[in-house]
Amino acid sequence: MNTSTAYTRQVGLLTLLSGPLALLSLVLSGVALADHPEAFSDPVQILAIPMVNADLLRWSMLFDIAGYYLLLLPAIFWLRQWLQAQTPWARLITYCATSYVLIGAIGAAILAVLIPMLLADYSSAAASEQATIRLIYKTIVGLVYGGLWNTLEVTLAGVWWLMTGYYLTRFGRAFRWITILLGLSSLLDGLGEVLELEAVATAGLNGYLLLAPIWAIWLGIKLRWFARHSTPVVAEDQLMPTAY
After folding, report:
1. CA-based diameter of the chain, in Å?
2. So where are the chain's domains?
3. 150-167 pLDDT tens trace
């Protein structure tokens, strides 16, 4: 097996793995908040839920870091090598993608630490202290959900997926369209957040949360197929990392 084939197979495996982990993060949060669906649209409500499983929420954030973000990095740089031959915008597209990963993972890491800690403090605090904890929690959740996630990261992700989908001419029409649709959903979420249109933001967010794992699984399968059949998608000398 040559180096390019091994590299593509490894990237495909990691990308394929990211999809189920992302879905698992949704499942864990769904189980933890099953009796309180209002907490999905207003995470501050989590503080008022008696006996909420903080461990499930923490692991949901950890799987979110791995599935929606970090495990996509190999695919991002694999795609960059291919995009460089297609467009001079390849570096900007990659910058948007890596920024999405970094910003999103930072937000999830903050919540993975914050949620269990504040839930424990809130349950044992006096009424006056609970008001302070609720204010702190509301502020940080607003910064992560409203600022880092649903405004900044989805905008960067939308640019990445939309432009990548436009240039993915050899990946099949269906995969190109799901990539473009994922980009549009991400941008719709950001636009709805900026314009304070809750219905628009929610529709975009739900599209992103569902399509991102499907996209990752699909891309992972494609990369594994390319490697198995020794199909060169990029030139051999373009597979080596290059500097920005």
Report:
1. 65
2. 14-32+46-238
3. 999 999 999 999 999 999
